[in-house]
């Protein structure tokens, strides 16, 4: 039995949510502690950069409903993943506090393009009746991302100072921003000859017996003398 392609899209959206929330939402809290302890930068400055990260992402979220139909969900999601990865390089390699404010809008745009709006735009076309269940499964990736990436960030920052330039990170970035978006986020149900929820729908046709009955009634009505009443029948008699 073949699995409905929409459930594969849900699994891909789950992975998207893991990275979107694990990096964009849970990462800044770890960045705050690391930049404060390792580089001695003021908490107020780093907190302001983190706030700028979320404010920039909110501005991008407001533009996503117009960007998705124009450029496609896959292209916007891929661009967001690339922006997220490049913005993380800016956070990790910033030599002065003011450079954080240059990296924050980039990571904010990546967080917005791979967050909740993207997950909904990816999953919604594939489901109608079972859309709540599909979205619930996809959004569970947010919780998984927080549980997975928070300790992972701490381990990477503590043990590998050059982790943003490592081949491991580059491979993960290419895998999530390229094949995942192209393979699962680009196709639409109509292009694959499928219907939402995987249902098989047949075009509506009037039954043959009903068509014949309607034609017979129309012929009888047209040939009947009552179909076109004469003026003598409709007017009163002149003798009254």
Automatic annotation (TrEMBL):
It comes from the Bacteria. Keywords: Membrane, Transmembrane, Transmembrane helix. SUPFAM superfamilies: MFS general substrate transporter. InterPro entries: MFS_trans_sf (IPR036259). The chain crosses the membrane at residues 40-62, 100-123, 143-163. The keyword Transmembrane applies. The keyword Transmembrane helix applies. This is MFS transporter. It comes from Caldovatus aquaticus.
């Amino acid at each position: 039995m073949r699995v409905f392609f929409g459930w594969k899209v849900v699994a891909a959206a789950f992975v998207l949510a893991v990275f979107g929330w694990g990096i964009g939402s849970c990462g800044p809290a770890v960045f705050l502690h690391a930049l404060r302890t390792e580089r001695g930068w003021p908490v107020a400055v780093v907190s302001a950069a983190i706030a700028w990260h979320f404010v920039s992402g909110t501005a991008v979220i407001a533009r996503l409903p117009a960007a998705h139909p124009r450029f496609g969900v896959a292209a916007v999601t891929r661009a967001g993943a690339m922006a997220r990865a490049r913005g993380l390089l800016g956070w990790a390699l910033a030599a002065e506090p003011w450079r954080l404010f240059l990296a924050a809008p980039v990571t904010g745009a990546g967080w917005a393009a791979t967050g909740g709006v993207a997950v909904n735009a990816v999953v919604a076309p594939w489901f109608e009746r079972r859309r709540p269940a599909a979205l619930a499964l996809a959004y569970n990736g947010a919780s998984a991302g927080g549980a997975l990436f928070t300790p992972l960030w701490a381990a990477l920052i503590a043990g590998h100072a050059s982790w943003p330039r490592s081949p491991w990170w580059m491979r993960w970035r290419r895998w999530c921003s390229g094949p995942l978006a192209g393979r699962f986020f680009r196709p639409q149900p109509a292009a694959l000859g499928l219907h939402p929820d995987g249902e098989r729908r047949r075009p509506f046709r009037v039954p043959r017996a009903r068509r014949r009955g309607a034609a017979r009634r129309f012929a009888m009505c047209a040939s009947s003398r009552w179909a076109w009443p004469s003026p003598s029948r409709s007017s009163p008699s002149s003798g009254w």
